[in-house]
Amino acid sequence: MTKEFPNWLSLTEQAAALNSRELSSVELVTAHLDRIAEINPATNAIVTLEPERALVAAREADRRRTAGEEGLPPLFGVPMTHKDTHDTAGIRTTYGSELFVDHVPQRTSTVVARLQGAGVISTGKSNVPEFAAGAHTANHVFGTTRNPFDLTRSAAGSSGGAAVAIACGVQAAGDGSDTGGSLRLPASFNNIVGLRPSHGWIPRTFPEDPWQWLSQPGFMARTVDDVAWLMELSNDTGSARSSPHFWPMRWEATDLSGIVVGFSPDLGGLVELEAEVRDVVAGAASVFADLGARLTETVPDLSEARNVFRTARAYEFAANLREVDEAHPRRLKASLQADVDAGLALIAPDLFDFDRARARLWVAMNDFFSTHEVLVTVTSQVLPFSADEEYPTRINSRPVEDYMAWVDSTTLISATGCPALSVPAGFSSSGLPIGLQIIGPVGGDATVLRVARCFEAATGYARRRPDL
């Protein structure tokens, strides 16, 4: 069974099969590459592939394991593609931009380096929107990534290629990043798990900006346990304390007795929801009650969150892309160019007001989490939309003002700095996945994982696979 269907094993199971030598790394890498060949013509999830390099690494992994070498890393010989905005030394990394179509970096980003340090074999790159801007995975270099549950629909973004690869059994788990929902939204659209962690769980090392807090690297997988394990490994592999913020990971899973949950699908009326999304997420309340949690309808005061998010996002995009914009004037896609321009236009009073607003938001979240362990809400306000659109232009009868407004459900949470996870919550009448978002206090990532694990075990929605 293991050798026939190794792609559908969890990350934990793949590692165990390799360590017991029930499965070889060459067999696992070959199955990984074969699955890409099967699903990629339809989904366009993987955009750069290094099969020869991967097989050489797999043969070496098998040689060392057969020789009885001790102290091998826990994921030694497991294949994985990486998000195309994460630098990988020696492997093309385009950032989804025509300006970097032949770019091969000399360094590896911290999150990928941690995976490689844990023994992962890097096989290639997964698709992204240009510079990870926007929650729909499409660009002018590689085209559009399509949802495996309905190939006419979006896979979301910006970690859409990675999410599709995981959902389709290419790999058990993978890295991504999340500014305004780029791990959570693809997880929701593809029926997998995605965690945006607290700042510092996965540290950035120079020349990355260790103080950049809005965009966070993180992981997706088909199970909560695998996300939790990657969180542990990414903290323990290398020098996690190179980050200015650090909390040691503690993972345990029990029932939810005594847990107080603030439950509100629309965040107290703050976000507009499609009817099927609202109904499916509302039905999750009984699951939490059956697990022993006490539910309230209380939500934190998020009135400052929209402006905080948009200011921080403009600042980070301008800081990260200013030199690209100067070298290639007006070559960025229109929506991204507008973000960079907004960041460059910020003046000192804007930043003073931003700091005060962020402080008020911090107090509001601390007040909420003084009486609640987690906040539970919707991940995406809409079902997966047409892959031919950049973003949905209406939610119910209300026009969507721009390409960020349809994801207020995740961007408002990003502004708080709190860890947030999307877990499968059910399906629409047409079989499209719907995700539930679980949010905890800053540093409370283990609590979020614990609650999500209990929900996952009680519902079983994550076991449903796309039929390609």
TrEMBL record:
A single MF term (Gene Ontology): catalytic activity
InterPro entries tied to this protein: Amidase, Amidase_dom, AS_sf
Residues of the Amidase domain: 27-449
Pfam families: Amidase
UniProt name for this protein: Amidase
Native source organism of the sequence: Brevibacterium linens
Taxonomic lineage of the native organism: Bacteria, Bacillati, Actinomycetota, Actinomycetes, Micrococcales
